[in-house]
Amino acid sequence: MKNKHIIIAGAILCASQLFAESVSIEGKEEIAVKSQSKSAGDVAKKLANPVAAMISLPIQGNYQPNLGANDKGSQWLINVQPVIPFELNDDWNLISRTIIPLISKDTGVAGQDRIHAMGDIVQSVWASPKALTENGWIWGAGAAFLLPSDSELSARKWGAGPTALALKQDGPWTYGGLFNHIWSVGGSDAVTSNVNQTFVQPFLTYITPQAVTIALNTESIYDWQNDQWTVPINLAVTKVMKIGSQIVSVGGGMTYWAEAPENGPEGFGVRLLFTFIFPK
Q1: What is the pTM (predicted TM-score) of this model?
Q2: Which are the contacts of 161, defined by CB distance < 8 A and separation ≥ 6?
Q3: Domain 2-278, classified CATH 2.40.110.10, yes or no
Q4: From CA 268, how far away is CA 239, in angstroms rounded?
Q5: Region 124-133: what's the mean pLDDT?
Q6: Tell me, what DSSP letter sits at residue 256?
Q7: How confident is the model over 23-61, as pLDDT tens digits?
Q8: Burial (Cβ within 10 Å: 0-12, 13-18, ≥19) of residue 13
Q9: DSSP secondary-structure letter at 47?
């Protein structure tokens, strides 16, 4: 009888230990999941900030339909956009963003071959203070440059002008805007005699607790030379995750052209997003 009691007590003790270990493991796993989610959320928040001190390589694929006078053309526009921050001193960062457009275009004209070419490159550089303003705003100012690729789809003009941005991050929300204005400063007149355009990008993003980003923006261009707006409205959903040891952001969305030149895209298009992320 005594041995029986000892066996029962031992079994109860072992079960208690196993239960305690199980609870401990579950608690650690829950903490790890929450920690990973918080880390992914922090990365997503930095991605929503164009002047964050984080290296990234966004690759943006845009399908643009209904091109040309007969609306039978289309193109894939792949924007490769490396973002590289540099620390100037204890108070300021310098942020470089290069937009390299790779284009595959079907003109929609019978007998014409599909065009594969690099478009003109836009290089932007912002100086941005590390500290927020008294009202919690982040800002940056600098210069934008147009670098001709001299391809079949190039304007063949060199250009330069000012660029600036301002944004605020309030909990899961990020809102603000970015602008630049580029004037041509040289190059050939074979395609156009002058480049004189303003780029305006208001943006609004919301980041869920699961590090899913819902982003709404326009990337509007006003061509002063031809008195013409191009106004694509973009809605996209992306998710920060890991592929092996590499942190990435993956997603996609839709584009609607509210206004475009006569030969420009019309209706709805598709946007695919993939970003390599290299946090410090």
Answers
A1: 0.85
A2: 143, 144, 180, 181, 182, 183
A3: no
A4: 23
A5: 97
A6: E
A7: 444 443 343 333 455 589 999 999 999 999 999 999 999
A8: exposed
A9: H
